[in-house]
Every structure is written in structure tokens, then in C-alpha cells.
Specification:
This protein is an alpha/beta fold. 44% of the residues lie in helices and 15% in strands. It catalyses: hydrogencarbonate + H(+) = CO2 + H2O.
């Protein structure tokens, strides 16, 4: 705690004075974040640091394993954050960000976790589909490190699928107002692996690259397009 207090003192005396006008503007104008980032609570992964985002630029929610429970299964903090970000803050991008050496993913691969940490095990059941994919669809002879890496990537994709079940997200996607991103931050290399929805794989993001996306904002798409239009009624 001494380090935390010292850090705040340094912020208050050295950092805040030069950014006072920024914070005053954020209070006066309100927050207008560019994106919602759903990341792991791991202390080594700080979305604002990784992206070099300033105050007010990101709306961040963090939890064990960067989990997004399907909408119908749990009304909790993640559900509220998603709904608020999309409907109140009008974010146009949502990022699910996993990372290497993830303790939550290690937990998914640990038999009997529920006996020691039942709450953690229950929470991680939202990642069970990713574990099943890695155990059944990947080669049996891959080493533990590669298996863990693969699980972290598959978990990002599973959570993106869960995200699509949230009504606010489904509506924004259907109206072409939202883009989804799947990221994996490699702690040991500093690389950001980004899921390319068109290629169906993660790629290392390079400075000169255009940012691949998991699902891009597109023209509004309605399954019943044309229903109720004069020409549709005339055809009947």
C-alpha cells in the first residue's frame, strides 16, 4: 500500500497539474470513449497502457479470463457494462482481449479446480467451449505452452460469440453501427495478435498494417428486409 499511496502522490503533484484541463473537460463534457475493452483482470495486462489511451478514451471492464457470459445466463457486471457502453455511450467498437500465460486458462485445464476455488470454476464454465475445442480439435502432442496459447485464442472467439447474444450488441450489429475485435496480448513479446475474421485466424499486428477485425461494421442487414414495403405488399 505504501507504493500505491506514493504513486497517487506522484500523480497528484506531477501528473495532474499538466492534465488539469483534460480532467475538467471530461467532467464538463462527459465521457465519450472510443471503444469498450473487455479484458482479463490479470495485473500484467493494462489495456490503457497497451494502447497508450488517455483518460476518457476507453471504457474498460476486466474480469478473470476476459469472460462474457451469454446474455440469458447471467445479469451481472459484464452484462451491464456491455449494455451501458453500447446504448448510453454509443461505442462503435468492442474488443475482447485475452493474453498469454493466462492463469484463468490454466484453471480451465486444471482438473478438480472446483474443489479448491468453486466460484472461479463456476465462472470459467463460460469458457468450457474453448477448452473442449482445444482438447478435441487440436493435436494431442502439442506442448503445454502451445496448448495454453491456443486456449487463450479460442476463448477470445468463444466470448465474442457470447457477446453477440446480448440484445444491445445484436441490434447494433444488425444496424451496422458496431465492429467487434478479438485480441491476444503476448506479455513476453509485447506483440498484439488480432483476429482476422475474413482469414479465420489470429495475425500479429504490425504498424503498417490495416487493423483486421473479427466482425466489421457493415451496411444494415435485416433478415426480413422489404417486409411491409409497398412493393412487397404488391407482390403478395
Amino acid at each position: 500500500m505504501d507504493n500505491i499511496v506514493q504513486g497517487f502522490t506522484q500523480f497528484r503533484e506531477q501528473v495532474f497539474p499538466s492534465q488539469r484541463s483534460v480532467y475538467q473537460r471530461l467532467v464538463h463534457d462527459g465521457q465519450k470513449p472510443k471503444a469498450l475493452v473487455i479484458s482479463c483482470a490479470d495485473s500484467r495486462v493494462v489495456p490503457e497502457l497497451i494502447t497508450q489511451a488517455g483518460p476518457g478514451e476507453l471504457f474498460v471492464t476486466r474480469n478473470v479470463g476476459n469472460i462474457v457470459p451469454p446474455f440469458a445466463t447471467m445479469m451481472g457486471g459484464v452484462t451491464a457494462a456491455v449494455e451501458y457502453a453500447v446504448m448510453a455511450l454509443n461505442v462503435r467498437d468492442i474488443v475482447v482481449c485475452g493474453h498469454s500465460d493466462c492463469g484463468a486458462m490454466k484453471g480451465l485445464l486444471t482438473p478438480g479446480l472446483g474443489e479448491k476455488m468453486p466460484s472461479v470454476a463456476a465462472w470459467l464454465r463460460h469458457g468450457e467451449a474453448a477448452r473442449k475445442i482445444v482438447c478435441d480439435a487440436y493435436p494431442d502432442d502439442i506442448d503445454d505452452k502451445r496448448r495454453l496459447h491456443a486456449l487463450a485464442m479460442e476463448n477470445v472467439l468463444v466470448q465474442l460469440n457470447h457477446l453477440r447474444t446480448h440484445p444491445a450488441v445484436a441490434s447494433a450489429l444488425a444496424s451496422g453501427q458496431l465492429t467487434l475485435h478479438g485480441w491476444l496480448f503476448e506479455i513476453e513479446t509485447g506483440h498484439l495478435l488480432v483476429y482476422d475474421g475474413e482469414a479465420g485466424r489470429f495475425v500479429v499486428l504490425a504498424e503498417e498494417d490495416e487493423l483486421p477485425v473479427a466482425e466489421a461494421a457493415a451496411s444494415p442487414r435485416l433478415a426480413a428486409a422489404g417486409v411491409g414495403a409497398p412493393e412487397a405488399r404488391a407482390a403478395e
